[in-house]
Amino acid sequence: MASLVYDSFWDDLSKGNVVPNTDTYYLMLTTSAYTASKTAHLKRSDVTNEVTGTGYTAGGNAVTCTVAKNTGTNQETYTFGSVSWPTATIAAAYGVIYKHRGGLATADELVAMVDFGGTVTSTGGTFQVTFSSPITIQN
Fold first, then answer.
1. What are the pLDDT tens digits along the chain (139 aa)?
2. Which helix (H) or strand (E) holds 11?
3. CB atoms inside a 10 Å sphere around CB 72
4. Which of 5, 20, 43, 45 is least enclosed, having the fewest CB within 10 Å?
5. What pLDDT does 40 receive?
6. Residue ranges covered by each domain of the chain
């Protein structure tokens, strides 16, 4: 499965439900059993097969979002920072970025799913996710 931006993100962005430069975002990890739906998955509660393991807390960890505008190319980019789980024993195939509201999973808007290209494991070490490219909007 390739990485994707959930369709609901664009709708939430347009309606002001998500504000990338001020909201709090989290990255949760899932196993290869998760099948993302670009169109049908809207909230964190739609995401299944979250990983479990030592050093990992359900819901994942906070991730920063930096917004930049390039007037020369008419692009707006949303760049997410690295996220890590030190001394973790986990196996994950995907990462799901979502707006973290601090309450029910049914309230947290989905942003994107990142495919790690296979299951990545960590045994008592640091599990780190570094994003290679931003989400870009171009006019």
1. 789 999 999 999 999 999 998 999 999 999 999 999 999 999 999 999 999 999 999 999 999 999 999 888 889 999 999 999 999 999 999 999 999 999 999 999 999 999 999 999 999 999 999 998 888 887 7
2. helix 7-15
3. 6
4. 45
5. 98
6. 4-133
> What are phi and psi for residue 98, nearest 5 degrees?
-145, 160
Structure tokens at 50: 């979250």
What's the CA gap between 120 and 137, in Å, rounded? 29
Q: What string of H, E and C letters represents the secondary structure of 36-91?
A: CCCCCCCEHHHCCCECCCECCCCCCEEECEEEEEECCCCEEEEEECCEEEEEEEEE
- Tokens found for residue 134: 């931003």
Residue 92 structure tokens: 């994950």
Token duo for residue 113: 């799913």
Only one residue has tokens 């870009």, namely 136
CB atoms within 10 A of CB 52: 13
Number of residues written out for the chain? 139
